[in-house]
Specification:
Elements (H helix, E strand, L loop, with lengths): L1 E2 L8 E2 L9 E7 L5 E7 L7 E8 L21 E6 L15 H12 L4 E10 L1 H13 L7 E7 L7 H4 E2 L2 E2 L1 H9 L5 H5 L6 H9 L11 E7 L3 H14 L9 E8 L7 E2 L2 E2 L6 H15 L10 E5 L4 E5 L8 E7 L5 E2 L6 E7 L26 H5 L5 E4 L7 E5 L2 E8 L5 E9 L5 E10 L18 E6 L3 E5 L4 E7 L26 E7 L6 E6 L25
Parallel strand pairs: 5-6, 5-7, 7-8, 11-12, 12-15
Antiparallel strand pairs: 1-2, 3-4, 4-6, 9-10, 13-14, 15-16, 17-18, 17-29, 19-28, 20-27, 21-26, 22-25, 22-28, 22-29, 23-24, 23-27
């Protein structure tokens, strides 16, 4: 396996035993006379084939034999890898949306002698986003040729919380989008609250009803924004065009943004998930491009339960409404189900020495550690961290959804941040990252309106974490790590209470205090389900759970 570092969409391609197809370079004319550049890979022999299309801003050479190779091997498909307009070897200037170009390339493929007229699209992140917009353009045609799409780690819309989690700028994520030319940095910083600008952006991005192409969405529990992927699936499953609404499928595994199908994810291994994404993609393409019926009917959703290390099949996510389970923060740092006594814990926050980001939803192109990581030494051992831990669990606890932490906090400043990291503490002491979340104190009541803190006065600050699916096994411990920074994942609050993102702000050291007790019920709320009934039976140890799919007529 090879990792090819190409920015936001770090695609894991495989040069498997089937070998690497030769390629020829082709030029694809657009209606405005701009030509896009592509690499065409054809199977051996004469004939015509269904075609899998990848459109990328990161360089079509990624799929060449001397680089990473094609995503997965099959002698049954042609592949075409095309540079976006204004990127790589393609002509023209970059566009805000590449859907029209994508649709034109699909129709160009259908006209070629080597094509049988059936086209599918595949790709991760930016390579996935273009698939949604291409499908929208295809729906405008009377005889479209796009039969199926497999967008991985991608959502079709854009919303406030993709860039401002709990009102805190996602520093690393947004900077990358700026450097790639995907967003206007000045405009982003001019809208730090959920104002009418974001309401408009979210309305424009709501395109599910315009999608008529069957989609297989692939997501990961350690992706950059799992919340957005799940929201996209919900919109497709419930609001896309009725002609193919029942044909969409969703697979979500224990993967990072660049790690689909890899054994190692961060500092853990997931052998049961190796090959699952590509296996599902190939089955999906075989059904829609080659007309090969699946062996057996499978539900719409397949999701991976970390901790228990098993797959589940179902018709929806979550599989059942979770039951909220509350764990109270005790003044001595314990975490349990008993209402806490009155108490407090304080920590100092220095913006010039922020708590470091370790693991989690990182920008993998930086070759930093992402996914599950042991936080004990670089995060929890610092004096700016409150570490709150349960006793060893007497029963397993399965979390399916977005945990929430509600903290009563006071500060000697006018503003500060609350950063929460949830970890799974193993019996050997490792404190493995599960999910995180952020909230800027001035946005504690609303993401629309600011309200500065009153120094020394406790206020309740809610922090919604990213969704996950993980079983904390019997004998493990729950841990909540509280800091007021998590950098470079998030912007560092200068703690001055001044204008947001003022480059001339003077950082100040702040003292923050967490309060407990009947009047200050600081707590962790877990969305808990029972998964015993939902286990996907029939898989042997080491089986990836690659599946065949039955779709609506």
């Amino acid at each position: 396996m090879h990792r090819w570092w190409i920015g936001l969409a770090i695609v894991t391609f495989s040069t498997a035993a089937w070998g690497q197809l030769p390629y020829v370079e082709v030029s694809i004319p657009m209606s405005d006379e701009v030509e896009l550049s592509g690499d065409l890979y054809l199977p051996e022999g004469d004939g015509d084939w269904p075609t899998l299309l990848i459109m990328t801003p990161y360089g079509k050479q990624v799929a060449r034999p001397d680089a990473a190779g094609l995503p997965f091997g099959t002698a049954d498909y042609a592949w075409l890898v095309v540079d976006w307009r204004g990127y790589g070897a393609s002509g023209g200037e970059p566009l805000s949306s590449n859907g029209a170009d994508g649709s034109a390339v699909v129709e160009w493929i259908a006209e070629q002698a080597w094509s049988d007229g059936h086209v599918g699209m595949w790709g991760s992140s930016a390579l996935g986003v273009i698939q949604f917009h291409t499908a929208v353009e295809q729906a405008k045609l009377t005889d479209p040729h796009l039969d199926a799409c497999v967008p991985q780690f991608a959502d079709f819309g854009s919303d406030y919380e993709q860039h401002y989690a709990g009102g805190v700028l996602k520093w690393e994520y947004s900077l990358f989008h700026y450097f790639m030319g995907y967003l206007d940095w000045t405009m982003l910083l001019e809208h730090p609250s959920h104002d009418p600008f974001w309401t408009f952006i979210e309305a424009v991005g709501d395109i599910a009803a315009d999608i008529e192409t069957p989609m297989l969405l692939v997501g990961g529990w350690y992706d950059l924004d799992t919340r957005a992927i799940l929201l996209g699936w919900d919109q497709l499953a419930n609001h896309s065009d009725a002609s193919h609404r029942d044909d969409h499928r969703f697979v979500i595994g224990p993967w990072t943004h660049a790690g689909e199908d890899l054994l190692e994810q961060g500092e853990l291994e997931y052998p049961q998930a190796v090959g699952a994404a590509h296996g599902a993609a190939l089955a999906f393409f075989d059904r829609w491009l080659r007309g090969i019926p699946p062996d057996e009917e499978t539900p719409r959703v397949r999701w991976y339960e970390m901790g228990a290390e098993r797959w589940h099949d179902g018709e929806a996510w979550p599989p059942e409404p979770p039951s909220p389970e509350t764990w109270f923060i005790q003044p001595d740092g314990r975490l349990n189900g008993v209402e806490a006594e009155t108490g407090s814990m304080s920590f100092t926050v220095d913006p010039d020495d922020p708590s470091p980001t370790l693991g989690g939803p990182r920008m993998s192109f930086l070759e930093v550690l992402d996914g599950p990581a042991d936080l004990r030494f670089e995060v929890e051992s610092r004096p700016d961290a409150l570490v709150l831990t349960s006793a060893p669990l007497e029963r397993s606890v399965t979390v399916a959804g977005a945990p929430e932490v509600r903290l009563w906090l006071s500060t000697d400043s006018l503003d500060t941040d609350v950063m929460v990291r949830l970890t799974d503490v193993h019996p050997d002491g490792r404190s493995m990252f599960v999910v995180d979340g952020a909230r800027r104190a001035r946005f504690r009541d609303s993401l629309e309106n600011e309200a500065l803190m009153t120094p020394g006065v406790p206020a309740e600050i809610p922090v919604l974490l990213q969704p996950t699916a993980l079983t904390f096994q019997e004998g493990h411990r729950l841990r909540v790590v509280i800091t007021s920074s998590n950098h470079p994942q998030f912007h560092v609050n200068p703690n001055d209470g001044g204008d947001l993102y003022d480059e001339n702000a003077v950082p100040r050291v702040a003292t923050n205090t967490l309060w407990t007790g009947p009047d200050h019920r600081s707590r962790l709320i877990l969305p808990v389900i029972d998964t015993n009934w939902a286990f996907a039976d029939g898989f042997e140890d080491g089986d990836t759970g690659a599946w065949s799919v039955v779709f609506g007529d």
